[in-house]
């Protein structure tokens, strides 16, 4: 197969049933979009999960319907009455270019598209849905959001970690929220799903709609996530700086740590588009430091040849090499707290070169906070616009417990349960990684013997 | 359906036969990529033309195979012996961010991947294949191309227009070229197809492989073309300038002309991601100037409300309004020579406001040459890298008379005949255009009565 | 002498008397800045006009005091009572990066520094002081101006051209304005001086303070003007585009017109910092087109050698070559309306090369509106901040009919009459121009025989 | 006084004698620049050290000549014969935007201006002049340097720290170097002076010319140093990121460390041009953390009011607060090794807020390596061009033991002894710092009781 970001069809394909999106009840109200001549999404249509004919034939041979997604898009009939529905939006997790674009798009679509009046912004992530934080939500008005997409960050604030579900649902009730849009990554979406279950348990008719946010580009069923392109673009400046630093010193090493907790897409793409990177280390491809065939041996050889080297490492790479003890810790979101692989590599390279009696200089750059706080570039910005619109379309039609996906170049409605179970990663035997190896000319394996 | 750039499945679907790629002969040589552990594309696989289940069911109901593309990618068996094959590359038409990336990728893949020795760069487009221009091709070496992707333009030069086919084939023979990579748009690919037919007529075994280049993003079966994202990004700076100019003057009008001869994708996407545009005019959506419901009436109303307006116009918009006489002329490529719609609109708006006795200022900006001469951004750059690799894979396997496509997020091998016949355009009733209308709040129709 | 922008000490040096700034009356109120520990400018201090010892000795030999400026800066004693004074600000002429920075600085200094309450922004330049335009001024509050410096243009709007003086003074009286800050160039400052004279004639005690704005960097006694650095920086992108276009075509010519009505500083500095420019044409250095030694002959030679050329031309260059008839026209500001030298050169080069039977391509880029609408870069932005502060300091102390200058790296108070009489230009025999000649390797003279 | 970067006339003024530049011998060869119509610097001219009339009067009252600098610039008579002289160039210390511009300018001026043939580039700073590092110098040719100014870093490499003087002089002799250009800061210039003394002791006629390089802008008699403007510009991106991070979290603190070992110019200017900074901490202005009136109290108050804060700290600020023990260490250049004040502040703020039971988030960004590795912006780039030219002019005329300075907006020749003795710093009672206080609204003093 051939795609530029190396995402693969997962081995364990979800069934057609598991891809059916939950619906709060009958959607019978006419959409106000009819008046502006909107074309609506045909409820009978489906987006195939795999665009490959041979996959299709396998399903047909088994006399099964091939798995497919519900297409995203505006529906002719709505579940919620636009003039009465009350909507909330919350942004969670780390910053990512484009969050303000999503907020703006959701609010503009609700107000200008559907005529929704009451739109609440909960502050500081799920913490803003907790009764412990006495910070009231703000009422969002289109006019105030006019230029927020030109600035990074999130005007609503964010936080990490889950909160008490019952308490959060109480907050939604207190503020009379019928629809909650949650913008976030894996943990946030898991929280959204749990929140929905809590509302369902209580017999509430609340729509919970996820908007996928992952600068690492590691969510399943999202071919490309917003903020990723911006991060890769700006990583160029940093890698060029590392290259300048490396070239300017005898045995100069420029070491850049890029985002990528479990998936090395940013590191890989930044490496591909740069041309000066000598080593790219990602979570999906294990490596060792010492011994024949290990990273340090390869580094020695590169320094020998060129007197400098540029190393790009994803933050989640080489975790096995870090002490087991530290891996126990978990950060507030429940993610495994990663050691700083950059500082670790800097230290190990330093020790190694010192032990060899070499003169050397290592410059370590960690641009993470700068990259994730940028305004979205145009590509990401327009993507956010559409994500926000589709989130609103889905909510108004009464969908819930779902996320807006992007697959086969089509926007889709995806049940949360098939998103949170899996992770999109680089296939170490796939095209993308082979391209990286071709670009860096690093050894195919850095696992020493 | 839901996609961010509004491309639609064309009404007239090509048949499976017409999607079969031409092959010069049996590919029986083992690929040298085997040694580096490359996974190869399975010859039995196909990429469906439509990812929609309901399209599929229509085909199956008719007992026909759904149309599908050959996936791009490296093949286990080659037609050309890498150590003996001689390759040429030519870049044609207007500049576009990323052309140097493609050249670099083709050369690096040929040399570092396959071990091809003889790689010729023909200068100044098809003119360099003509015997009239006494400019010899240059031999391309990877070392010299190390940083060319950081600069805009094309190191090979370019030109427009067709040349004598026989003469061009003679040149290929004189330089012993077995494979010709042509980087260009609609006209260039038409030329490539004609060139291949001429070689076939003479019984020559020459592979002609197209790499799609269209900053307008208007080639069929190419979901996203390189240079497009860079152009949209940089158009922001210009539109913001136009907005500043407009706001700073009483009845200030900022008028920006963007590229888009037949398709308004750049204008539409730039409008969406900006937020300050009041009117977006594209070739696909006709408009009139005068009378009730026409553009000037809407402009008056906007100026009345806000005292300034920003107008984005694609270069091919409003052609019907320009004098018939001038439409006869054709530029060197055979394209219809367009009048400058920007100057035309500036003049018409000026006359109209003068006749109304209004004080006004119009600032007209045409950034075309600056946008198209930029280096590619990361997204475009990595896309070019892959396009170049797939072009080489196809050529080495003996494919010919084809272009590398990108459809359903998969890279494909597409016969040239199904590319040059059609054009990708914005559907005036589709999602993309509805988004633009929502962003500008311009009237749904600007065709006056 | 040696400075990087080539400004020279003018031949006709002003006398000490002409450099004495007008004062509305006795300044006897204690400055509120005393409370925050401000150090005040010593009224006895002066900034020498020339920093050269030999100039000094000439004056001393003649037993005369060397001419010097009053230093800008906060005074211990004020003329206006901060709690009662009413201030107005107006921005005139073409856009320039940094105007919003100046507005913000003036308002913040008035309010936060001095505690001034009533600050009016007149809309659309001097037109906003005219009774004919029924657009009331706006009250400016610091909170609303928080981020205006991150955007180009001017939030107040602008216009060109003078208005009726009596009418403007009436408007000032109607709005009870005691201090008027005028941000603008040569024409604006001339207007400010006339306005002050009109108030003086009527016996009014109104302070008129100019803030020099000239993207061309052509005001006398201003070593560096805001917006200039930003414009030169961004001109690089355009010149690189022109270079890419030129290189990509057989006999490709990239032609860039940059701002510079009477002084070629932008063209010269942009040429120096680029390295790819082959010809730089400025108003101060005449040239001819035809004949031996003319521009076209030099162009032919350059094309012969390199097959492409990059030409940078200041908008005011080569005016003598344009038809006399057109030079009669004047634009609204009373400036001589210049023909577009870019279109003229494009046409002349085209005719010349056509007549020689050459194949060629000329790409003409005019980025003026984009450059002047940018937000200021840091250097310009901090310069604007200080200009605004000094304008306020001067006004509060009762100075009038003056402009804030920058000379010998010191900020100064400069009487308007010594500013408007002269123009800062590039000395064709000075260092700056010699550097340009060294960078382009163009002939020392392009005046043909 | 009024200048935008707050440099002050030092209290201890150098005498006229100490400002006299060393000359290797009689300059009697005619300059080849005569042929291209160059105007030469008049040997009788001098640039006053102070441009203030009252300073002048003090000197005159004492019947002394006011101290003044020799102006930089081309001389009519040369000491070295251009066709025989052999020149070397070495770049030392940390990276700084513009070093490649200086190299390019020196080489182009030597070759294209004077016709010098033999130009050597010593690799990796003074280490390249040491016999211990077996890395031969490279011969520099203008053609190879064409685009180096578009890239950051230094093509020659760099290193820190002094080397054995005798050994270095031996290297100069071995390579027959008559002129050595050293590009570097305080330590480098001190080394250059020592090197010259060693050559003088041996009776050698070697010219040693310094080009001032300090991204911190802290060299005396250099009003503005190259790389500084670029660093301040790019610091904006980082501070905006810190602001986005801070705003997005409950009690969010964005902490940015900027370059400035002994002088806080970068921190101060970046703060001024940003508008979002709440605290600016620099080496020149002491502060304490704890107690009434200390930094942490002020921080609490700011968080109370705004729920977030942005802190910019110069790397050399607050050194007194760091443990005495660590201050003993010295880095390779002999500079005091500074503790990382950023990590220190992050830790102290964290402890303080934790002890108060506050929920908070601190994001610490250190962009130093990225800022210093950028290509120079236009302003810096053209400044480098002129510095390089003047370095060459001085060397060819036989000047030695000097540096090219920039004072009163004029380029000067400055004896090294008056440079290395002093440091340019921000005056805590001067205008610049008052502006910073006005911009941040931080308390005038952060020294707690």
Structural class of chain A: alpha/beta
In the sheet with the most strands of chain A, the strands line up as: 3-4-17-16-10-9-6-7-8
CATH-scheme architecture of the largest domain in chain A: 3-Layer(aba) Sandwich
Uncertain stretches of chain A = 1-7, 327-331
Q: Given the structure, what is the number of helices of chain A? A: 13
Task: Please give the share of residues in helix of chain A.
Answer: 25-40%
Walk me through the structure.
4 copies of one chain form a homotetramer. Chain A has 449 residues and is α/β, with parallel strands linked by helices. Chain A folds into 2 domains: 17-225 and 376-415, Rossmann fold (3-Layer(aba) Sandwich), CATH 3.40.50.450; 228-373 and 429-440, Phosphofructokinase domain (Rossmann fold, 3-Layer(aba) Sandwich). In chain A, strands 3-4-17-16-10-9-6-7-8 form a 9-stranded mixed beta sheet, sandwiched between helices. Mean pLDDT of chain A is 91; it is low at 1-7 and 327-331. Helices cover 33% and strands 16% of the residues of chain A. In chain A, strand 12 (279-281), helix 7 and strand 13 form a beta-alpha-beta unit. Chain A binds chain D through residues 95, 124, 127, 133, 135, 151-155, 157-159, 237-238, 240-245, 247-250, 252, 363-365, 367, 369-370, 372-374, and chain D through 95, 124, 127, 133, 135, 151-155, 157-159, 237-238, 240-245, 247-250, 252, 363-365, 367, 369-370, 372-374.
